[in-house]
Write a structure and sequence with these properties.
Length: 305
Amino acid sequence: MTTYEMQQEILRLKKEKNICILVHAYQTHDIWEVADHIGDSFGLTQQAAKSDAETVIMCGVRFMAETVKMLSPEKRVLLSSADAGCPMAEQMDRDMILAFRQQHPDHKVVAYINTTAELKTVCDICVTSSSAVKIVKALPDKKLLFIPDCNLGSWVKQQVPEKEITLMQGGCPTHARITAKEAEAAKAAHPEALLLVHPECRPEVTALADYAGSTTGIMSYAEKSDAKEFIIGTETSIVQHLQFACPDKRFYPLSKDCVCHNMRLTTLADVYDCVCGRGGAEIEMDADLIAQARRSIDQMLAYGG
Ligand code: 13P
Ligand code: SF4
C-alpha cells in the first residue's frame, strides 16, 4: 500500500465508522491530510466538546486524549500511539497541590491543560497557551497558583501584572532546552527574520521574541505577516508546516533540538491501525475521576471560549 492509498483508506473508514480524527499541529503532514481538525491544545479541546462522532482518535499525547474522554465519556477515545505521553503532565502530584491549598486557602489553582486527570481534580481551572492570558485576566480572584509550567506562568504573570501569581518549578523539557544564547545566535544569523516563540520557552528567550503565542498563534502570525523570514521557537514540525503553507517565505528552526519525541511517535500507519480497529490505546477513565477532573476543563471552556 502506498502512503496515498493508506490515506484514502483512512478517509473511507473514518466516514463509514463515524470516526473523528483530531490532530495536534506538531504531527506530520501525512497525518494532517487525514484530519477532521488540526489545532493547538485549546482548539482541539473545543472541537472535542462539539464532535458527534462515535469514536475519536487523538493524534497527539495522552493528556489530550484524556481531555476528549472527559468531555465525551460516552465516546470511544483512542490515543493513536499508546506510548505518547507529555513529560510535563507527570511533574506534579495531587498531594503537593493539596498541601499548597491547605497553606494558602485564599489562592485559586490554575493548571496548564498539560496535566494528568488526577492532578486536574485538585485544580480550579485549566488554561492552554492560547487561552491563559485571557482566562487569568478574567478570573475574579487576585491570588493564583499557576502550575506546572513556570515559563508559561512567568509569561502570563508579565502580561497580567494586577494578579499575584505563584509559580512552581516545572515545564516542558522540549522548549525549556532552548537558551537565550541560541536565540541571539539565530537572530545574528538571520538579521531580517522575526523571532516567533512558544511561551513554554524560558523567559530570557521569550524576551528576545517579536511574538510569543501558542502553536496555532505562531502559525497564523507568520502566515499573515508581511515579513519574509521567521525564526521559529517551537517544535521543529512547525517549521515544516509553515514552509509548506508559505513557500515564498523562509522559516528557520530556533533550535534543531526542539523536538518533542512524544509528539513524533505517531505514524500514519498507527492512525490506519486505529481506524481498522486494531491499534492505539483506548482511554478508560473512572466516572468519579471524570466528574472531578472535568470541572476545571468546563471552567476553561466557559472563560476562554
Ligand atoms: P499548544 O498546543 O497550546 O500550542 O501547546 C503546545 C504543546 O506543547 C502541546 O503539548
Ligand atoms: Fe509535553 Fe512539551 Fe511535548 Fe508539548 S512539546 S507534549 S508540553 S513535552
